[in-house]
Write a structure and sequence with these properties.
Layout lengths: L1 H12 L2 H31 L2 H4 L3 H43 L2 H7 L4 H32 L12 H29 L5 H5 L1 H15 L5 H6 L1 H14 L3 E3 L5 E3 L4 H25 L5 H6 L1
Antiparallel strand pairs: 1-2
């Protein structure tokens, strides 16, 4: 169990997809948001007719609130894309593990529960390390630009459990995709299946940034959107939200319901994964590529 746990952490942290998509690509977008978009937003805000002649205290208050909203939106998008990218790496790692898992579970001391616990724990540690670094870098970049505003998270106690639950959800999702590939012998589509979490992550980024969603059902029923809005709430401190189109709205959402939504989706995925893994028979990867 310990060896599998350490192996999972090492493979995820050193996976090229995680390094490329989950770290470098995310930092690239973070630089754009902090050093290009941030100053432009503040300059446009201060030059607007409604604030141009306002007292300095009012200007500073509005500027701080709007910039923190802006930073919170970027943080939520960066983390959801990072978790999605990590899930892509996890899917690739799990693909090469699950080929022989049915054999090991039947003829060795490895149990299905042991595999899930070790793999999920390793993914949690790897995700926490990467997202902690991403959080620190985000705070540094958005607080050390020409804007001159310190943008720090308001509710760390919301961000940490959200990242934990999000990590478990994504490893559950990745495991399901791998099991589907092996169950259906769809090995030719392995790369496409592996990138499904990342593709959905970009889609969630676009919807969260450019579409005004006022229905609470969208956030409760979609785990991607639930994770994003919880990250936003954790950084900004409320559900008062303004997207890139300038439309501002205050969402009437329940924190317990959002967390429950993620837990429910994760539980459903894990039940399906457990059933599929128990019923799976051994097919070597080389044999699978020939099917």
């Amino acid at each position: 169990m310990k060896r599998l746990f350490l192996y999972t952490i090492k493979q995820i942290l050193m996976h090229p997809g995680v390094i490329g998509w989950g770290i470098l690509f995310i930092l690239f977008w973070g630089v754009i948001g902090a050093y290009i978009g941030g100053p432009q937003l503040v300059n446009q805000l201060l030059s607007s007719p409604s604030l141009k002649d306002a007292p300095a205290t009012v200007q500073q208050s509005v500027e701080h609130m709007v910039y923190l909203q802006y930073t919170s939106g970027w943080y939520a998008n960066l983390v959801i894309m990072s978790l999605s990218a990590i899930a892509t790496g996890v899917a690739s790692v799990l693909y090469y593990q699950t080929g022989t898992l049915p054999y090991l579970i039947r003829y060795s001391k490895l149990k299905t529960s042991t595999y899930f616990i070790s793999t999920y724990s390793g993914n949690l540690i790897a995700s926490l390390v990467l997202e902690a670094l991403l959080t620190a870098v985000t705070v540094y970049m958005f607080s050390n630009n020409s804007v001159g505003i310190t943008a720090t998270p308001s509710k760390i106690k919301i961000i940490i459990p959200t990242i934990l639950l999000g990590s478990i959800f994504f490893v559950s999702f990745s495991t399901l995709l791998d099991l589907i590939i092996i169950k259906l012998h769809a090995y030719k589509f392995q790369n496409l299946f592996n990138y499904i979490p990342l593709i959905l992550g970009f889609l969630a980024f676009a919807i969260f940034t450019y579409v005004t969603l006022k229905s609470s059902a969208v956030y409760y029923s979609n785990p991607y959107m639930a994770i994003e809005i919880l990250l936003y709430y954790g950084y900004f401190g409320s559900f008062k939200f303004a997207n890139a189109t300038g439309v501002e709205t205050t969402l009437n959402l329940s924190l317990p319901m959002l967390f429950l939504s993620i837990v429910a989706w994760t539980s459903i995925l894990n039940i399906i994964n457990y059933i599929l893994l128990r019923k799976m028979y051994y097919v070597s990867l080389e044999e699978g590529r020939m099917i």
